[in-house]
Known about the structure:
Elements: H1 5-14, E1 19-22, H2 32-48, E2 52-55, H3 63-79, H4 89-103
Parallel strand pairs: 1-2
Amino acid sequence: MKPDFAGLMPTLRADRRRSVLVAPTQFLADHLEILYDIDVGARQQAEAAGLRLARVESLNLSPRFIDALAAVVTRHIAALSPAVRPIGGPARVEARHRRAAIAAPGKNDRQSTDPDTA
């Protein structure tokens, strides 16, 4: 990922910054690059430079995010010709979405990575 955190942290500190907020917009869900490279590696580099680091929470299983994805899929399936439309069409996608929402209720299970709220 660019910019490289190792080079960025001392530069931010030299510019009299005290905190860093990371928003990894290229990723929708937590995985190795988020959980290790940012939450562990970048945090260590920030602390070594005398900075506090926090990260914007990933979307993961956010109900609003899942609803938005389901709406896009449903709209695209509805626009398909009947010859290529999946069996059950949009109604089947909506039913699967409801079952997934029941299986993973509530807000995102991921804890905040902000040191003040963790």
